[in-house]
Amino acid sequence: MIEVKNISKSFEENHVLKNISLTFKRGETNMIIGQSGSGKTVLLKSILGIHTIDKGQIIYGDEVYSEMNNKNKQKIREQIGMVFQGGALFDSSTVFENVMFPLQMFSSFTKTEMEKQAHFCLERVNLENSDHLYPGEVSGGMQKRIAIARAIALNPKYLFFDEPNSGLDPKTSIVIDNLIKDLTVEFNTVTVINTHDMNSVVEIGDNIAFIYEGENWWTGDSKEILKADNKELNEFVFATKLMRSIKK
Question: From residue 186, how far is each of 169, 199, 200 by CA, in Å?
Fold first, then answer.
């Protein structure tokens, strides 16, 4: 579990996060949604420790991550898998080499064990026959799956996704959603997803936090979100779904 307790974050006079408290549960998909400029990206980066919060606490399990020194934070970071919006793959490395990278950097595995783990992760995302290819030779959806394979290589306790369906067509987005959900349950991770994709929210959102003007404006699940009595949430949800329909 990850707990966010009464955190605030400002950049000079701009108060981006205002006393936010949230709980992200293990084995469930925890989603952060909100319009551009709402503070959700700053929230994600604060949870990861990229931004230093002004007040409050961020707790991983029973450890207060936000109050640790860099050495102890690194121990938590080694338990985190991250999938960036653009994938952040190494273009000059093969698919297999991309997945091997965190294993070579952070694991104590032998070379044989690392290769076995990398092959397992690629098989888990249905890319077992693509290990010799380069990122530029595969589709956007395959690149996202490569990034997911790399993120799970170290068997993380915590998985973070920043706009995992950005730039993908609706059919491929469903594949990515189902993969994220399956891996969350299979690996029993605390999965946190920052997204604009309301189809994803409705289909796989176990716990959803709507951030509005830096505040935690609404929390609930995918069954509750479409019938929530919250003006700002409703405007965001139905405007987003309308734009998605127009793009189709």
Answer: 26, 22, 19
Which pLDDT band holds residue 247 (cuts at 50, 70, 90)?
A: very low
- pLDDT tens for residues 188-203? 999 999 998 888 999 9
- Which pLDDT tens digit goes with each residue over 169-187? 888 999 999 999 999 999 9
Which uninterrupted H or E stretch holds 59?
strand 55-60
pTM across the whole model: 0.89
User: Which structure tokens are listed for 169?
Assistant: 């067509």
pLDDT tens string 101-113: 999 988 889 999 9
Q: Judge whether 89 and 101 are in contact, CB under 8 Å.
A: no
Residues 221, 31: Cα–Cα separation, whole Å: 9
Q: Judging by beta carbons within 10 Å of its beta carbon (0-12, 13-18, 19+), is residue 138 exposed, middle or buried?
A: middle
CA dist list (Å): 152 to 18, 81, 203, 232: 32, 6, 22, 35
Integer Cα distance of 205 and 234 in angstroms: 16
- Helix and strand tally (H, E) in the chain? 9, 10
CA pair distance 93, 134, nearest whole angstrom: 6
